[in-house]
TrEMBL record:
CDD domains: RNaseZ_ELAC1_ELAC2-C-term-like_MBL-fold. GO terms for cellular component: mitochondrial nucleoid; nucleus. Homodimer. Interacts with PTCD1. The lineage of its organism: Eukaryota, Metazoa, Chordata, Craniata, Vertebrata. Its EC number is 3.1.26.11. The keyword tRNA processing applies. The gene is Elac2. This is Zinc phosphodiesterase ELAC protein 2.
């Protein structure tokens, strides 16, 4: 039976002769010759400061001597374009020889990874182009390196096969065929006539509406990213030159890129503050990337850098300290204002915090920025901002029905409430404090 034969097979594979049914069998009689697996390298070089160490690394050098038994099949380069352009890196690439494939993953890999989202938005755009603008594909302004050896740039679902034959496979690579998306919608029964009815039912002009504040909903999908919605993030454009984020879940920067395209750097420079309602990760885990990309945007546009006002529960600081101390220096990118200090009636605000709040109000031309504690998790807050021109925007974050929010939200021009659960799900809403 199979269990009895397994030790025999194992011994033969390990190079030992065995006796089976009175006959001695050697590995050479039954096993094919050894076939060492292909070698591949995954290399991350964040900046030029690592180049000398990489170029002098003895482990890499063993695979750059041209020996057939030391041939590298594939090198995956997670390197910024600036590193890829460096002559030292180029020379290091060449030493692997013509038999090595090179895959580059960096800021210039702009392939679409979520075609379903693009498809839905393209079809909704046929109904109302202003409410559903077409999504864009963000392209880095970083000049592409001209390499002395052939390279392949990463694409979503691109595959490289090592066995039985070494080759690239592109049949699953995601593509966005806008014409096909439109054709599919137009082929639906009554689609065009229903769209015509919808447009005729709308007023020709929206009437006398102020341009600002402009609200851009980047994520309304509650706790989990989906193909049609991302997690919590709302951009409030208070003027042509000032924006504020209400919560900042994972993927917020990507949503900004898809909405604004090449204008995203200026949008990041316009962003002067982020409000984080509470410490659940779907509301703040996109913050770090926003900070890093915002810093890059200021440098790319040649504008003077200014720290971001971060209005958040003070419990966010241990997380930021941990990242700052062990990953990347970021604390210089923020000016912290604790949500606790902005609750009406708070009297223990320190002088520096008072200066920060005053600067925040001045930056957005606000008469008031206030918070209140809401019924969700511990240290969860809503916020209210009142502009000097008279409008008032209130954002609830996650909460159950809450008297403090009702009082703070009185006379609001706009209330943004994350109403996660519909009627009939009251029991679940109570369990999740929503």
């Amino acid at each position: 039976g199979t269990p009895a034969i397994l030790p025999i097979i194992t011994a033969l594979k390990n190079g030992h002769s065995i006796t089976f049914e009175g006959k001695e069998l050697s590995p050479e009689e039954l096993c094919t010759p050894g076939d060492p697996g292909p070698v591949f390298l995954v290399l991350e070089c964040p900046h030029q400061g690592f180049l000398d160490a990489i170029c002098q690394n003895e482990t890499f050098q063993r695979y750059q001597e041209g020996l057939p038994e030391k041939q590298v099949a594939l090198v995956i380069h997670m390197t910024p374009e600036a590193v890829l352009r460096d002559s030292r890196y180029q020379q290091w690439l060449q030493r692997f020889g013509p038999g090595t494939q090179h895959l580059v993953l960096n800021e210039n890999c702009s392939a679409v990874h979520n075609p379903r989202s693009y498809k839905i938005q393209t079809q909704l755009n046929l109904i109302h182009p202003e409410i559903f603008p077409l999504l864009t594909t963000y392209k880095s302004k970083e000049e592409e390196a001209v390499c002395s050896v052939p390279i392949v740039r990463g694409q979503c679902l691109l595959k490289y096969h090592f066995r039985p034959q070494q080759e690239w496979q592109r049949d699953a690579v995601t593509v966005c065929d806008q014409e096909a998306f439109i054709s599919e919608a137009l082929d639906l029964p009554d689609f065009q006539s229903r769209v015509k009815e919808c447009r005729e039912s709308l007023p020709a002009s929206p009437g006398d509406v102020d341009t600002y504040p402009e609200i851009v909903f980047l994520g309304t999908g509650s706790a989990i990213p989906m193909k049609i919605r991302n997690v919590s993030a709302t951009l409030v454009n208070t003027s042509p030159a000032r924006s504020l984020l209400l919560d900042c879940g994972e993927g917020t920067f990507g949503q900004l890129c898809r909405h604004y395209g090449e204008r995203v750097d200026q949008v990041l420079c316009n962003l002067a503050a982020v409000f984080v309602s509470h410490m659940h990760t779907d509301h703040h885990s996109g913050l770090l990337n926003i900070l890093l990309e915002r810093r890059r945007a200021f440098a790319a546009l040649g504008q003077a850098f200014s720290p971001l006002f971060l209005v958040a529960p003070e419990q966010i600081m241990p997380w930021l300290y941990e990242y700052h101390n062990h990953c990347e220096r970021i604390l210089g990118d923020i000016e912290m204002i604790s949500s606790q200090s902005l609750v009406k009636g708070c009297e223990n605000m320190k002088p520096k915090a008072k200066w920060s709040v005053s600067s925040l109000l001045e930056s957005y031309d606000l008469a008031e920025f206030q918070t209140c504690e809401v019924q969700h998790c511990k240290n969860a807050f809503a916020c209210s901002m009142v502009h000097k021109s008279g409008w008032k925007v209130v954002y609830s974050g996650d909460t159950m029905p809450c008297r403090a929010l009702v009082q703070m939200g009185k006379d609001a021009t706009l209330l943004i409430h994350e109403a996660t659960l519909e009627d009939g799900m009251e029991k679940e809403a109570i369990e999740k404090t929503h």
